[in-house]
């Protein structure tokens, strides 16, 4: 039935971020509600799918989970082609991975399509005791017209959708 099909919105989404921050875990939790303790590094990229009903519209997420290591970075622009959204993940217990957010914003600016929507996720919220990146780091500041320590020039042409907390995803999927 064509009517039903036309109301499906396909949202190609790419997950990026440094190595070991939890990109694959976020994708697994969002699409299969699973979590794996044991680390399994992603080779090149993997595909995940999930559909959500949002305000009466069905959104079919086609999620490309990429590998954070440098040797695979040259492949990412291929996945970004035709993407609607990108999710940058960092690990709240790793300052270095938050620095990586700056790198990835620049990467998206240089390689992402126009109008790409960007969400930033601070992952591993359960490890609050080892937190290295303060919650304020990503708050919008009127003064700088940017997000905390994030260079506003990096977000100029893009829309940061939400600074969602994946700890919430851990319990129930949230539509962004
Ligand atoms: P990726 O390299 O960015 O894809 O990272 P992974 O998703 O493979 O996760 C790296 C490691 O961190 C794995 O051992 C996961 O089990 C662990 N991990 C991922 N997310 C969380 C989280 O929210 N909390 C905790 N405590 N560990 C996590
Ligand atoms: Mg991975």
List keywords for this structure.
two-stranded antiparallel sheet, GTP-binding, binds guanosine-5'-diphosphate, 8 strands, GTP binding, alpha/beta, nucleotide-binding, single chain, binds magnesium ion, 176 residues, six-stranded mixed sheet, 28% strand, RAB22
Structure write-up:
The protein is built from five helices and eight strands. The protein is of the alpha/beta class and 176 residues long. The strands form two sheets. The protein has a six-stranded mixed beta sheet. The chain has a two-stranded antiparallel ribbon with strand order 6-7. Strand 6 and strand 7 (146-147) form a beta hairpin. The longest helix has 17 residues, at 95-111. The structure holds guanosine-5'-diphosphate and magnesium ion. Residues 23-24, 42, 65 line the site of magnesium ion (MG).
The helix tally amounts to: 5
**Strand order of the main beta sheet, please?**
2-3-1-4-5-8
Largest sheet: 6 strands, mixed
Number of strands: 8
Average pLDDT number: 80
What share of the residues lie within helices?
A: 10-25%
Structural class: alpha/beta
Small molecules (ligands, ions, cofactors) in the structure: guanosine-5'-diphosphate, magnesium ion
Strand content: 25-35%
Low-confidence stretches: 162-176
State the end-to-end CA separation: 28 Å
Radius of gyration: 16 Å
**Bulk shape:** globular
Order of helices and strands: HEHEEHEHEEEEH
């Amino acid at each position: 039935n064509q009517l039903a099909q036309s109301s499906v919105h396909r949202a190609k989404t790419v997950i990026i971020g440094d190595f070991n921050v939890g990109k694959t875990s976020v994708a697994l939790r969002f699409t299969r509600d699973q979590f794996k303790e044991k680390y399994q590094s992603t080779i090149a990229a993997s595909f995940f799918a999930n559909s959500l009903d949002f305000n009466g519209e069905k959104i079919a997420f086609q999620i490309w989970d990429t590998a954070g290591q440098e040797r695979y970075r040259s492949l990412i622009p291929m996945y970004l082609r035709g993407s609607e959204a990108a999710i940058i993940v960092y690990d709240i217990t790793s300052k270095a991975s938050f620095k990586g957010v700056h790198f990835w914003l620049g990467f998206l600016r240089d390689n992402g399509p126009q109008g790409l929507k960007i969400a930033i996720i601070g992952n591993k919220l359960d490890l609050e005791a080892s937190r290295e990146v303060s919650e304020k780091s990503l708050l919008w500041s009127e003064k700088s017209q940017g997000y905390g320590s994030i260079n506003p020039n990096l977000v100029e042409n893009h829309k940061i959708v939400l600074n969602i907390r994946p700890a919430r995803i851990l319990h129930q999927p949230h539509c962004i």
